[in-house]
Amino acid sequence: MVLAGPPAASLRAGRRIDYAHPVPGFVDQALVVRVWDWSETSQTVSLFCQERGLLRAVAKGARREKGRFSGGLDLLTRGEVVGIQKSGAEMATLTDWTLQEIFWAGRNDLKRHYTGLYILDTIQRLLSEADPHPKLWNQALKTLRRMEEPDVDVGAALLEFQWILLVETGHRPDVRGGRFADTETMGFDPQAGGLISDPGAGARDNGPWRVRLETVRLMRSLEAPASSEADSPEAGESGDAVDRANRLLATYIGWLLGREPPVLKLLFPSGTSPRVRKT
Question: What b-and-e string marks burial along 47-67, b requiring 16 or more CB atoms within 10 Å of the CB?
Fold first, then answer.
């Protein structure tokens, strides 16, 4: 749901500006990725901003019903944020938050809820602060919006997001062929970041992991942007292939982080990764 709100200029209208002691301010679009209660009326938040990247901030008075923060900041929402970033300060100070979009599907459907939490969690864990990734921001927003559609393939939407996340953070999986002949079963080595020949049934928990050719071909289709909805991962691909590809990329992300994100076991309850079963 997209909510209409006043522009930042009108939010700031009527406030005194201290021209003698200017403080660097900013206005940005943001997704809320984490929230902590700081006091009865205030919050500390982690935001994924379109232009500023990952941002930690204090929102004083955010939980007051008649404050300037739309009643507080919540996960699975998008809004316009206004704040101040002082030089050398660990956290910014938010002065305004205008709620513009609520992703209701992530609150009303368990699978979409876990998918949304996983998206937010991996963004926070893989990105560094003040490192803008506008393409990843757009993809995260696109994925959350796609999950609002009643008939969307949530697994396909997640797969596309995970691929862009790895590419944008410098961890693009190398799934190209040509170095060795394709076989029905190959391997994925997380240390090398790509395919290897079949490691055999004795593959170790920390890699390499066995992967089916069908899964490899699906990931190769993600290398080139889709020219239409018919070219998206959900078109013409079996649900099992999408699920296996998601598990592989999620396991690779967990390997990069040094541990699996806690929500992963909820997102894939029948086996959290290729370490449990052949991908």
Answer: bbbbebbbbbbbbbebbeeeb
